[in-house]
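job 3f2a | input accepted
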Amino acid sequence: ITEVKVIVGRQTFPSHPWKLDFANDKYIHAYDQLFEVLDMAKDNKGNMISRENYKYGQCYFAFDLTPDEDDSGHWDLIKEDSTSIELTFAERIPATGI
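job 3f2a | predicted structure (98 res):
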């Protein structure tokens, strides 16, 4: 995976898609975001996913989809719209899948 983004209606999360390069250790922002979205970034506890495990397959992407990207306990209006996740791969996916 070299790029990740979520599109909700006409809004993209994150505002600039993540550019990833796992072979060259350029994935830390996505790894850190997992802790941010799970509200674990400021605590001294983990989710049992090391950076090495994340790099080699235990990779989960987490996004804050609130309109202001601030889940601070206030209410956001509920909207109905389409949501899509776009992934770009460095290599063509084989016919048998991944």
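job 3f2a | The longest strand covers residues 11-19.
job 3f2a | closed
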